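Technical annex B. To support the medicinal chemistry partners, we prepared a structural model of the target in complex with iron/sulfur cluster, based solely on the information shown next.
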Amino acid sequence: MQKKAILYKKLPSDLVQCTCCSHYCVIKPWESGKCSIRKNISWDLYLLNYWKILGLNIDPVEKKPLFHFLPWARVLSFWTASCNFTCSFCQNWQMSQLRKENKEYWKNFWNNYEEALEKIWDEVTPEAIVDFAAKNNIEAIAYTYNEPTIFFEFLKDVSLLAKKKWIRTIMVSNWFQTKEFCDEAKEFIDAINIDLKAWSNEFYKEICDWRIEPIKENIKRIFNETDTFVEITTLIIPWENDSNEDLENMANFIKNISADIPWHISAFHPDWKMLDKEITPLSTILKAYEIGKKVGLNYVYAGNVNVPRLETTYCPKCREELIIRSWFVWERVIDKTSWIWICPECKTKIAGCFVENWEFVTRKETLFSK
Ligand code: SF4
Ligand code: SF4
């Protein structure tokens, strides 16, 4: 189904400019933007895959990963086609790279890209998604696996319905948004895990096909100007973003926004166009983990490696173990009924949103101890 977009501007000569992500595509009549799914039709911008989801899954919230946001929650994740990036290491490239120009990925199944968007995938309405979540007592809906920014109008409608049923909303995103997007999303997105993929512009340019600056600005903006809860993930790729300098720069950048923002370091495994690299050595992951702690981040985690205690939440003051995780499964929790976590040993407040009754948590000051 085609849905008229919200985030765009009309330009002279029948052009439109999409204001959803920082590509700010200027789109000619009857053409689509870089992501293939936002098209100029008769001098208006339309989203081509509204209601068209590629998949739906129930995940633990820890898989997003979010470790300080409703840590016991089950999340209804869904995803669509395409992305605004072309990261050569993409672990979800089968959906993220279903773009018009990547004909080799879809030509065996479809004659025409837009016809496929329109006809082949099942239609799932926002009402159906939210009703399913409510009936199954699911605490949050997550837009994930491909980049949700590009289907803004769809996720907005789902989110507004979810709010009415007291269901929270999560984005997992490269956060290459625009200010216009952030200003809208802050009204209905409760938590976000942002990919800070690297520190250098060269990495973003050569591997993801864009630049880092808008992402840095957007991370500061979402933290400082909204009540959306933020965690950050970095996939560590050997020889690409794993130098001490890069890791220290990323950790310092996060710390300068807030030491309470959880930083997830994740081990790379070869995928899509980056098959020539090796899995990230454990020594590199341990190095990154130690750098995060040394710089002064209060909550550092390492994923995709099976090492005890690297996914544990420790009290930042007395190092008491508060939650022990192993591949998303808890082995222990502290007082789950409390709406703010306090370390039982030293009474330090632990950053996060741990409340079951979400009416109590609406402001950032309850989430972070800044
Ligand atoms: S979402 Fe980004 S890539 Fe897609 S049309 Fe809009 S500006 Fe371009
Ligand atoms: S932004 Fe994420 S989904 Fe998109 S190509 Fe990069 S890794 Fe894949």
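Notes passed to the chemistry partners:
The chain is about 25% helix and 20% strand.
Residues 3-48 form one domain.
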